[in-house]
Structures are given as structure tokens and as C-alpha cells.
Amino acid sequence: MTGLTCHGCVETVTAQLIAVRGVKEVNIDLVEGGVSTVSVVADRELTDGEVEGVLHAGGAFALARVDAMSFLGSTTNAPDLAVDVLFFDGAEELDAIGPWEVLRFWAELGDRRVDVRAVSLDGKSVRCAKGLTVDVDGSLGDRPIDLLIVPGGRGADILAGDLEQVGRISRLAEQGATMASVCTGAQVLGAAGLLDGINATTHWMARGQLQKSHPSARISSGERWVDSGDVVTSAGVSAGIDMALHLVDRFDSRAVAHRICSVMEYPWHPEARGEAVIST
Amino acid sequence: MTGLTCHGCVETVTAQLIAVRGVKEVNIDLVEGGVSTVSVVADRELTDGEVEGVLHAGGAFALARVDAMSFLGSTTNAPDLAVDVLFFDGAEELDAIGPWEVLRFWAELGDRRVDVRAVSLDGKSVRCAKGLTVDVDGSLGDRPIDLLIVPGGRGADILAGDLEQVGRISRLAEQGATMASVCTGAQVLGAAGLLDGINATTHWMARGQLQKSHPSARISSGERWVDSGDVVTSAGVSAGIDMALHLVDRFDSRAVAHRICSVMEYPWHPEARGEAVIST
Q: Which range is the signal sequence, renumbered to this chain (chains A, B) (predicted)?
């Protein structure tokens, strides 16, 4: 590694590397102005890209090559948690990509091995509600998952009325996936029968309609998200970011959630559940 | 229009339609349980889709057909403001799509005629920092613009080092476009010479490096965004949403910015400039 000129640099780089998921130990043999040797002990294999990404964020340090990285080994390559973010035509961009950002940071910075993908109903690219076209990594249900994020947007109403697609979502829930909706994505979970008798929320403008469609659901107001165990629902659009941070808190740890808030500079309130923004 | 059963419905629909940009007057001739006639007077042509979108959000009202819409006419089809959001390989998703969401809502709900596009350096699709591939509407500089959003992410550092691309950004600034960066997008504006002698901000982790690269810039901390007139910069990742709302406030009105906060359920603080999230 080049660019290390003092013990301050060593401390900076050590702190940055220790923050990487799986890293247990960092030792730096400083050669001022030359090529310093960095030894990293981790419980999983780190890629050059991961190490470079971390170093890049913090300063002008360049990685000469990775040649002193010990890998403690792992019993399996499978992730601890498989997470899919569902995209569909007319999905509200921020509903999906707010959680996407949080969850992909989780995959980078978390203490658990998390694999996060973007999926669509058929694996093809989708045109979101505000006109952005997004490519995806796979299709809904093409692998067992632990968590599905269902965004809202005008496409969610159409999806909620499509019995075949709703059936695919029901099956994922039956197979044990936690289902998390953002905004009017709650209509999709409702159509799949997942809101009956539980506490849930949605966009403030859509609460009345959701309550009417699902009389046994208890639709609450004033909360950024509602965690009912197997089903988690959030308020409108930006509240999906808060819910995703809560999911990191729940499935990993509060410390990891705060780490993500810090890199995203997002003011998340785990206890207060955020400020309600119901009208102006 | 069908589904209107009482004067409460009439009030709801009237309020929803009045909120649409350009609508000046709404009159509803109620036929309970049948087809009511809705007359809309607007200073621009409304599409069926726009009207349906609004009605859909609020309840179970269905549009039979649009046949009583008066169009006051407009002197020009050109937008008041042309806004491009720049995407590039390695751009942080939320840096770009947070503002995208705000600005596209502005185009729908604002009092000014705003045209917002996604662009890339060459008009081709890009792969963002967290792996999402996004298609775009055009390429940087292919039309005169009033405002450019430059996101951060690891791709921003590469872009900042590419003299040819930085030159294209300088030229847009010279032609009068307001330049707005999110997160480490400030490095790109800095490379274009746009930060010299002005107040600016960036991601808290990148402040030191930005200050070092641009000694005459005054890099501040603790603010979600810094408006220096022709150049506006925001703190990291999610702060781009706050900055975009400020740009709506500045180029349109505070009322429109609050309208967007309301539909996005985003707790924006125009005076306080948001809560600083510098570390955990």
C-alpha cells in the first residue's frame, strides 16, 4: 500500500479496515512514503475491490496489491440472509431505491452475510413511476429468500389487482420470507391476505382506502413503520429508508444500522420511529 | 366520472384536481351513483393519465372519459426550467435518485413548467455504485439546461480526474446552468474550478480531502446543504433529498417544496437545514 506517511495514516487505515464486515485484525508495517505492508485477518475472503473502496473513501491511499490477507475460512458460501427488492412498472423510484441503498450498504458494512438483489416479476427491466428504467438481477421467487421489499407507486395498485402475481407473493410469505412494504406496497401485501388482523401502515393519503379494503387490519398513523413480525409496513415513499434501517437493526444489530446512517448521513430515529409528515 | 356518491366525494375530487399543476378551476355536476360531469379549466393541456393518476391516489373514483376539459392555451411548449440529473458508472444510487424523486414530483406538482431528465456522459445506461443499472433519457450537454445535479459515489472520484468530462461540466456552468452536487459529487465541481473561493460542503468523511484539493473553498460542516448561488452542494447521500427540496423552494416556492415533502412523507427543515449526522 502506498500513500501512508505517518502514524495518523496508519490509524485511519486501520479504523477503516476494521469497519469492513468480517475483518478481525489489521496490522500495518509502515514504510513512510514507500510501500507499507498491511495484514488483514478476516473470517471471509475480501476482494481487492472491497478493500480499495474502503481506502478510497478515506483519503489518498492506494492499494499496491493484496498479498498479506489471511482468510480464516467459512463453512459455507451461502449468505446468512437473502433479500430481494421488487421492482415493477410504475413502482415509485424512491420507495424501492431508498431501501435498496440501505440494504446494499448492509451487505457491505454489516456483521452478517447478506445478499441483496433487485428483482422484477419476469426478470426484465422495468419502467418506474417517475420514468426511470432499471435493470434487475433476477425474477421474483427464483430463489428462496428471507426478506422481500415491496414498493408502492401507481404500479402497486395494478399489481394488487393481479391475482396471479399476488399468488406468487403469498407463496413467498408461506415459505417463510418476511414481507416488507413501502407506501402503497401495503395494498399488494393486503391483496395477498397478509394484513388481516395485524397492525400496518401505508402512505397517509392511502390509509382510508387500505382500511376499507382490509377491515380487519389495524391501519395506524403517525409512525414511519410498523413491525408486525412476519409483515413490516412503512408510511409513504421516504419512510421506506427508515423501515429498511429498522430491518437492519432487527436482523443484524443497532450498531450496524447506525453505521449505515452514518455513511448515508441519514437522521434515523429507532425509538421515536421518526417524525410523522402527514400534511402541510 | 363514476364513483361519486356525495358532496364529500365532490370536495375530495375537486381538491385533488386543483392540486394538479396548471389547473385553475374545477366544476363538478354530481350525479349520485351515476356518471358525474367534471369540468376542468387549465392553462395547459392535461392528459387522461394525469387526471387518472390524481383520482386514483385518493379513492375509488374512476374516470369515464375526459370530455369537458377547457385548455386556456399557453404561449410556448418549452419548459420554464430544464433540469438534468447526471448518472455515471459508480454514481451512488440514492445520491442521484433522491433528488430525481423530488425533482420529478416537482415536474408533476410544481407551479412552474419543469422538465427533468436522467442523463449520462454518453447517453448509454450506467451501472451505479451499489450495482443498479439505470437507463437514461439523454447525454450531458445535449440541450441547454438551467440546473444540473451531480451525484457522488466512488465513480465521482474517477470522473473528477477525467479532464475531458470535467471540461464538459465547466462549459455547462459557463453557459449559466446552476450546478448542484450531492456528497462527493463536490469533487467533480471542484475539479471544474467551481468551488474556488466559495462556501461548499460534501460527505463528512470527504471534507478533509475536498478542503485539501481546493484550499480556497470554505468547506463547512453541520449543514445538509450550502447554497452559494451558481453552485449548491450537499452533505452525504441522503442530504441530496434536502438540497433538491431547497432547489424547488428557490426556483419555485416554499409551498411547492412542502407539497412535495407531503407526498414523499419527508421531514424537511428549510430553515434549520436539517439535522447533521456526522458520526455514530
A: none
